[in-house]
Amino acid sequence: MSRNDLDQGQAIAARVERFVRDVVIPYEKDPRATSHGPTEDLVVELRTVARAAGLMTPHIGADGSHLSQRATALVLQASGLSPLGPVALNVMAPDEGNMYLLGQVASEAQKRRFLAPLVSGQARSAFFMTEPADDDGAGADPSMLKTTAVPDGDGWRINGRKAFITGAVGASVGIVMARTDAGDGKVAATMFLVDLPDPAVRVERVMETIDSSMPGGHSIIALEDLRVPGDQILGAPHQGFKYAQVRLSPARLSHCMRWLGACRRAHEIAAAYAVKRHAFGKPLIDHEGVGFMLADNLIALKQAELMIDWCAGVLDTGALGTTESSMTKVAVSEALFGVADRCVQIMGGTGVSGDTVVEQIFREVRAFRIYDGPSEVHRWSLAKRIKRETLEAAADGFGLA
After folding, report:
1. Which CATH architecture has domain 241-393?
2. Which has fewest Cβ within 10 Å: 56, 145, 278, 315?
3. Are 123 and 167 within 8 A, CB to CB?
4. In what residue span(s) does the Acyl-CoA dehydrogenase/oxidase N-terminal domain sit (predicted)?
5. How far apart are CA 373 and CA 140, in angstroms?
6. Contact, 92 vs 214, CB < 8 A?
7. Do residues 336 and 365 make contact, with C-beta atoms less than 8 angstroms apart?
8. What share of the chain in percent tops pLDDT 90?
C-alpha cells in the first residue's frame, strides 16, 4: 500500500464526513427511516444526492480498483457518523461484503451481470447463509448447513430455509450458500448467484430486531425448489466454506469501521450534553463520575481505531486475516458497546429517548456483538489456536515447564 493510497483515502473521507454531517444527518428524523431499516424510497433519495455529490461507493474507483483496507477504514468511519451514511454512500452491509466477495471470486461475466449494478448503487443484495435455530441449522457453526443444492439437468435445485437474512426484501442479487455433495463424504458447500425476486425465494416474515439501520430488515426465508443455472455458481463448486472466509474477514472489519464512526458521533453528542447540562451546581462534565466516563470513551475509541488499522494492514498484505479479524471484531465490538453504553448513561433520560441518535447507536452496536460471529465463537476459535500453538511449542521443547 502506498502513501498516495492513504492520502487518497483521507481526502475521500474528508468529503464523506462533510456530506454525512451536512446532508445525511438531517434525514435521521425522516419517517421513512423505519424499524426495519430505511424504505426503498428513502434509499433511492439518499443515493441520488450521494451520486450527485460524486460519493457513490467512494472506496471503489470508476475503473473497479479498490482502496486498500487501511484507506477504506478512513472512508467507512466517516460514513458511519450517521446510521444512514453507509446506506447513502453504498458501503453498508451486506452489500459492501458481497461486492468484495464478487470482486475476488466472480467470473468476468458474473461481475458484469451481478457486481456492476451493486457498485453503481442501482441494486441491493442479500447473503443467504444463516439458518433458523428451530431447524437446528447453520448459525455460528456453518458445518450445520441444512439447505441443499442438488444437480438438476444443466443447473441446480436448492431447498431449505434461511434466517436473519439482511436486506432480502428489496434485493436484486442473492448469494445463496447450500450444502452440496463433493463425493468424498465430507461436508461441502457451494455458493450460487441468484436473480431476485424469485417466486421460489419466499419471505416467511421480516423479523423484529433491536437494530434498524439496514434496508429490508432481517428476514426468515424459504427456498422452495429454487432453480439456478450452472453458470451461476460463484467460484468453484464445493468451495463455499472457503469463500465464506474470504468474505467474512474483511466484512467483520468493515462493521468495525462503520460503527467506530457511529460511536464517535455518540461521544460527541454525550460530551456536548455533559458540557451544557448542569447538576448540583456545576456542569455534568465537572463531576468525576461523568468526566471519567467521557475519558474512558476517548481511550476506547482510540484503541478501536488502532486495532482496526492493525487488522486492515494485515489484510492489505494479502493474508486471509481470519485470526486478526476475529480478535479485532471482539475487541472493537465490546469496546464500542462500552462507549455507547456510557453515552446513554451520561445523558440519562435523554439517552434512552429518540430525541438523539445515541439511543439507536446503542441498539445497533449491541447487535454488532452478535452478527458476523458472536464474541464467544471468536474467543473459542482463538483458544483453539492458543492450544495448538502451545502444544506445538512444547513438542519443540518450549513451554509447559
Report:
1. Up-down Bundle (1.20)
2. 278
3. no
4. 10-122
5. 6
6. yes
7. yes
8. 89
Q: What is the DSSP string of 155-180?
A: EEEEEEEEEEEET-TT-SEEEEEEEE
Instruction: Name the 3-class secondary structure at 186.
Output: coil
342 is written with which cell numbers? 456510557
The predicted model gives 153-162 an average pLDDT of: 97
DSSP 2-38: -HHHHHHHHHHHHHHHHHIIIIIGGGGG-TTEETTEE
Residue-wise pLDDT for 165-177, tens only, equals 999 999 999 999 9
Average pLDDT, the chain: 95
Q: What is the value of pTM for the model shown? A: 0.94
Cell of 45: 433519495
Q: Judge: domain 126-236, CATH 3.30.565.10.
A: no
* Grid cell at residue 319: 493474508
pLDDT digits (tens, 9 = 90+) for 214-269: 999 999 999 999 999 999 999 999 999 999 989 988 999 999 999 999 999 999 99
Residue listed under C-alpha cell 453503481: 120
Report the distance separating Cα 181 and Cα 177, nearest Å: 13
Residue 228 cell numbers, joined: 439456478
- For residue 400, is pLDDT > 80? no
For 268, the grid coordinates are 460527541
Q: What is the chain's alpha carbon radius of gyration, rounded to the nearest angstrom?
A: 22
Write out the H or E segment, with its range, that includes residue 227: strand 218-229
Q: Which CATH number fits domain 3-92: 1.20.1630.10, 1.10.540.10, 3.40.50.300, 2.40.50.320?
A: 1.10.540.10
Nearest residue to 329 (alpha-carbon basis) of 307, 300, 299: 307
